[in-house]
Each structure stands twice: as C-alpha cells, then as structure tokens.
Specification:
The complex is a heterodimer of chains A (345) and B (316).
Chain A: E1 2-6, H1 8-21, E2 23-29, E3 35-39, E4 65-72, E5 84-85, E6 93-98, H2 100-113, H3 121-128, E7 130-135, E8 161-166, E9 169-174, H4 177-186, H5 196-209, H6 218-222, H7 225-229, H8 233-237, H9 246-250, E10 257-264, E11 267-274, H10 295-314, H11 325-329, H12 336-344
Parallel strand pairs in A: 2-6, 6-7, 7-8
Antiparallel strand pairs in A: 1-9, 2-3, 4-5, 4-11, 8-9, 10-11
Helix pairs in contact in A: 1-4
Chain B: H1 2-17, E1 23-29, E2 36-41, E3 50-51, E4 71-75, H2 77-88, E5 97-101, H3 110-117, E6 121-126, E7 130-135, E8 139-143, H4 150-153, E9 165-166, H5 181-187, H6 191-202, H7 210-213, H8 240-253, H9 263-267, H10 275-289
Classes of the chains: A alpha/beta (345), B alpha/beta (316).
C-alpha cells in the first residue's frame, strides 16, 4: 500500500488523464441537487461533499437492461432461429468518487454472480474491467448505518484507490495493482508526508463517530428461519408497502433480474432486466399460481433475503451495506433499520 | 394540528371500542423528518399511534381496494374523493367504511424543502403558516405556503366530500376557478417540442412503478405492463418508447378518475413530474364536460356515462 499526495491541480489533471484512458464515471450534480454517475471528466471539487448518488453505481457493472443474445426468425436467413451471443466489448472503465459503501456492495453481489458452480460472464467481465477510485465519507447522513452493515465511511473493500479529502487536496491510498496503474495514468505519484497515516486514522475515527444509526443482526442469524418467516409482525410492518420497486432499484446489493425476449419485425434480442421481489410477476407461475400472492409476503421476502437467508447461505454477514438509500427514498417510510430491529429482537 | 390529532385518536378509539370498525387506517409517525408511515390500528389502546401533519400526502384510499373488513379511514379532501371513486367503481362498499374526514391544511413538499435547505434536515416543526427546518448546522424558517406540494397549491377541494365524522372544522374552499396554467403551457408547444419535453422528462424513469403503486386508481389485478401472454409492453429500461407507453397509457386509464392527489409524484424516487399527464386529462374533463372526479357517489364516472349534450365536436 502506498500513500500519495494529490493537490487540486493534480486532481483535475488526473481526472482528465483518466478520462482519456478509461471510460470514466464521476458524480455529477443534477438540476434537483441530486447526484448521478455520468461519463465525464468535468469533476468539481466543490461538489465532492455530496452524500451519495441517488441511484447506486451498480448499473455501471450490472446495467438495468443488458442485451445478451440476438437472433432472427427470418426463414430466409441461414441463421434462422439460432441464438447468438452479443459480444460486448468490456472497455476499461473507472468510477471516480464512488463511496466506500457502494464499492463494498460489489463484494456482496459477487457471491451471487461468481461462484464455483456458476459464473455470470456479463457481470464478471464488466466487474473485472472496472477500476474503483473511492472517496472517503467525512459527513455521513443520519440514515447511513454502514459501520454495522459490512462497511464504513473509510472502508477499503472493493476499492483500488481510496481518496481522502485533506483541505482542498487529497491523500490517495493505493490499494491494488489496478489502483497502481490508475494512479500512474493519473500522474498521482507524489509520495505523501510521513504523518499522513496517523492523520488518516484520526479522520477515519472522526467520520465513524458521526455515524449515528446502527443495526444489530446477531440474533437473526441464530433464529429459526421458519419461525421468523411465520412471525406475526410482518403483516403489520409491511402494511404500508405499496410494492413498488424503489428499494430494490436504488439498492447497491439487490441483484435479481428477469430474462426477456423482445422481437421487432424478425429481429429478436434476449435481454435481462433488473427485477424486484416486490412485483407480483416476480414469482407468478405459468399455472397462474403465485406463491407470494399477498403484498406483505413480497415485502417479507426482501427483508428475509437481505437479513436472514443471505446470512445463512454465505455465512458472511447481511446483504446490505447501510447506504440508507431505501430509507431515504421509500415513498411510505418503510425503514430497514426498524424491520431489522424487530427481526433481531 | 394538535387538535386534529387528538380528535382523530378520539374518534378512532370510539369506533374501535364500539365495534363499528375492525381496523382504522391512518398515519403513524415516520422515522425521518417529513415522513409518515401509513398504518392500521386494531386495538383502541393503540390509537395513540395515529398522527396527522403536513407530511401525510400519501393517499390512504390506496389501501382500501378489495378489503373485506369494516374500516375506519382518515381522509383528506383528495383521499375522500378517491374513496368516493372507489365506491362508484365497486372496489369498496360505503357501508364498510367509517370515514374520519380531515379538512386539509395542504401538504408539504419534501423535495422542495430539501432543495431550499441544502443540507440534511434533522427536524421540521410546523405551525399554521410557518415551518421551521433544522439541520446540524443551521435553522431556517419558511412560509408554509411556499413549501406546499404542487397539487395542493391548486387544490379546490380541501374538505372531505364524504365523511361520517370530522376531525376539524370545515375550511372555506378557494373561490378561484381552476385555470390549468401549467397544462396550457404544454398545450401551446409544437407537437415536436412537446414530444421532446416528455421524452426528457421521462428519461430518468427507472420503471419501479412507484407512481402506479401509490395511485388508488391503479387497482387492476394485472397491470397492462405486467401482462405476459401476450406481452403488450417491452420491459427494458433502454427502450424509451416502452417507458413512454407505460406513462401515457397509465395516465389515460386515469382519465375522468384522477383527483390530482399527487401521490404519484410524491412517490417517484426520481422526482419525475408525472402529474403533467393526468393534469391534462383533468383539464380536458373540466373543459369539455365540467367534470371533476370523485365529488359524489351518485354519478357514474365520466367515461362510462353518455349525455346527449356531451361535447362531441371532435367526432368528424
């Protein structure tokens, strides 16, 4: 691990160089003051105090719609009804300014897309082609609970470089080979002063102390699955839920998708689209039977998956990084912290 | 506001105790500033959980469709109009309901407030004409009037249109005529500009369907976008034609039924102004048929009714 000093000019020049070598995504302020990752090099240091982007950056590796195969139904074509992979060129991309919670989320999602048994080439190739240049959080929100959900404001999981704000400059913590390469391209090579390590440690402690909300999941792990599933609180707690896909779509760790064929004229595309366990169609059987027919059953699924099934299956914590997006954006104020408390009590 | 809350709690307790209803649907305190959570109360002892303030903009009529039990429900003007609409559309029976009417003091726009405050809001206190917003580092007082949801600004029906008991005195309604200036602006655009305007507006849509799911009118057992055999609408987020088809068709399904409660816009995580579509239809319903949805349970809905004096110049 190497520490580098990056002053304001170096930072801007570095962003430009990264833009020329990678497909660079940076957080850009939108008209309504929200932030979104956009392909640009016009990064503004003054905007880097943003809390987080409205949507998580998961779509940069796992797009909402991914075209996987194409085919033709034209009987005059020799390729008629033959399904062919769409060879996507995975250009090298870099995400500059990703928050630590979001980069930690990729490790959680990886457990689903990259296993001994199954390897999802679309996700894996895209993930491998991505360099993650994170930005430590100095001012978390009251809805952030990352420190009790697999992450933290200075968490390094999944990152290649961690940038730490220091006045109007940065200290860069080069964490991986990919990070070394990106730092070299960006020209971020000035060694940081010796006291940086202790300064970062102090800053990290300060940021962590600002995380005001937390969850406990220890007891959920040992609870009987069926008992939790059949608990009487679900109906009441999920009553407000309107079963929209907001929580799943803004979540960095929700990975479910649906495969669809779309044909226009005789040209067909097989694609996969994000899906959500909140939608009735998610579990609707061909017979017409729906094992999750009721609204509360669908809401229960989301929390059971994140907080119980994931823990049981992978033995590595919950499927959540505490970014707080679902809390901030749920139209009816269903708060995962509250549900978690009830499940854990 | 405090009087409203105590009255809501008192009525709810009474109707639960007397066995008039099995549950009361209302709002409970939210976990964030400017949030409330729809809830149901079964026991008279729990009625203390019920709250009411300027953050109760979600339309509770949305929780009624298909319910079999006897229900007490808190209803602002718009909620009550949607309840009337659901009764006319046979989605709930009047006899099943005990409507606790709340003359509405208009709801606060969370987004507008956050945009003007520019840092995390930790506390919001409301009074009749002011809201005091607190953050970690500052405090600001806003005129309540400047922070209202857009649909509330033009609202003509703050008083519940049907109710069994009121939680507050009826309010004097606005005597201004609905002008639909916002609609006129879009109507004045060339068709190309209008298409571009809507395209840009909908480009942020992530197809979470929160607008549909928050809408009390959208109770179809299977929404047309979810039909799979045959499939009517493509599901990708890339195909903007499909995204537009969803929004425009959904709006048309609300023609003559929409009460402009604003739940769709409030629910949208991307802040898309989806009311632009339904406002146009409401404006047409008013202009051509002098119709406003959900004002009574005595009339058939606009589009399943024919009158000889209907506007029909469009038939060529």
């Amino acid at each position: 691990m190497k520490l580098v000093s990056i002053n304001k000019e170096d930072f801007y020049a570095g962003a430009e160089k990264l833009y020329n070598s990678y497909k660079l995504y940076i957080p850009v302020k939108q008209e309504d003051n929200s932030y979104a990752f956009k392909n640009s090099d016009k990064i503004d240091i003054n905007n880097l105090t943003f809390l987080n982007t409205r949507l998580s950056p998961k779509s940069l590796v796992f797009p909402q719609t991914e075209k996987m195969f194409s085919y033709t139904t034209d009987t005059n074509s020799e390729d008629c009804n033959i399904i062919k992979p769409i060879n996507k060129e995975n250009l090298k991309q870099a995400i500059l300014g990703i928050r630590p919670c979001d980069s930690a989320s990729f490790g959680i999602v990886e457990k689903n897309f990259d296993t001994e048994e199954y390897k999802d080439p679309f996700w894996i190739n895209s993930y491998k082609a991505t360099t993650f240049i994170g930005l430590a959080c100095d001012n978390p929100d009251s809805t952030c609970f990352c420190t009790t959900a697999n992450s933290g404001p200075f968490d390094e999981k999944g990152l290649d470089i961690l940038l730490i704000t220091s006045g109007d400059s940065f200290i860069g913590k080069i964490l991986t080979k990919k990070g070394e390469e990106a730092a070299k391209i960006a020209g971020w090579t000035t060694e940081a002063p010796a006291d940086s390590v202790s300064a970062i440690e102090k800053q990290k402690k300060e940021a962590e102390s600002k995380i005001s909300s937390s969850i406990s999941t220890d007891k959920i792990k040992d609870k009987d699955t069926l008992e939790l599933y059949n608990a009487s609180f679900w109906e009441e707690e999920a009553f407000a839920c309107i079963n929209c896909g907001t929580c799943a779509y803004v979540c960095p760790t929700c990975w479910c998708f649906d495969i669809q064929d779309e044909i226009s004229d005789k040209k067909g595309i097989r694609m996969r689209n994000w899906d959500s366990c909140m939608f009735p169609l998610f579990t609707l059987h061909g017979s017409g039977h729906n094992p999750r027919d009721l609204k509360y059953q669908r809401a229960r699924q989301r929390f059971m998956h994140k907080l119980k099934y994931y823990q049981d299956k992978y033995q590595s914590g919950i499927q959540c990084v505490g970014c707080g997006r679902c809390i901030r954006l749920c139209p009816v104020n269903i708060d995962i912290r509250r549900i978690c408390d009830i499940m854990n009590s | 506001m405090a009087e409203y809350i105590s009255k809501i709690q008192e009525i709810s307790k009474k109707i639960l105790q007397d066995g008039k209803v099995d549950i009361v649907i209302g709002f409970s305190d939210g976990s964030l500033p400017m949030a409330s959570r729809p809830c149901f109360i079964k026991s008279p002892e729990d009625t203390g959980k019920l709250i009411f303030d300027g953050n109760c903009g979600i339309n509770l009529a949305n929780y009624l469709t298909g319910k079999k039990e006897k229900i007490g429900i808190i209803a602002k003007g718009c909620d009550s109009r949607n309840i009337a609409q659901l009764i006319v559309e046979n989605k709930i029976k009047r006899e099943q309901l005990f409507i606790i009417g709340v003359p509405c003091f208009k709801m606060i726009d969370k987004r507008k407030t956050s945009l003007l405050f520019e840092e995390e809001i930790t506390q919001v206190t409301e009074s009749d004409d002011k809201i005091i917003v607190k953050g970690k580092n500052k405090e600001k007082t806003f005129n309540r009037e400047d922070m209202l949801q857009e649909n509330c600004i033009t609202c003509m029906h703050r008083n519940p249109v049907i109710y069994d008991e009121l939680a507050g005195e009826l309010i004097k309604e606005s005597d201004q005529k609905a002008e639909y200036e916002d609609v006129k602006k879009i109507e004045a655009m060339s068709s190309e500009d209008r298409w571009n305007h809507f395209s840009e507006m909908l480009s942020a849509c992530v197809r979470c369907y929160a607008c549909r799911d928050a809408c009390p009118l959208c109770y179809c057992p299977t929404c047309f976008v979810d039909e799979s055999s045959p499939q009517w609408v493509g599901k990708s987020a890339d195909n903007q034609i499909d995204v537009k088809t969803f929004h425009i068709l959904r709006a048309f399904h609300c023609a003559g039924r929409c009460t402009d409660c604003g739940a769709c816009e409030k629910a949208c995580p991307m802040g898309i102004k989806v009311r632009k579509f339904t406002r146009k239809l409401n404006s047409d319903a008013m202009r051509h048929y002098e119709w406003e949805a959900g004002l009574t349970t005595d009339k058939r809905p606009l589009l399943d009714n024919f009158r000889v004096n209907d506007y029909q110049d469009f038939i060529k």
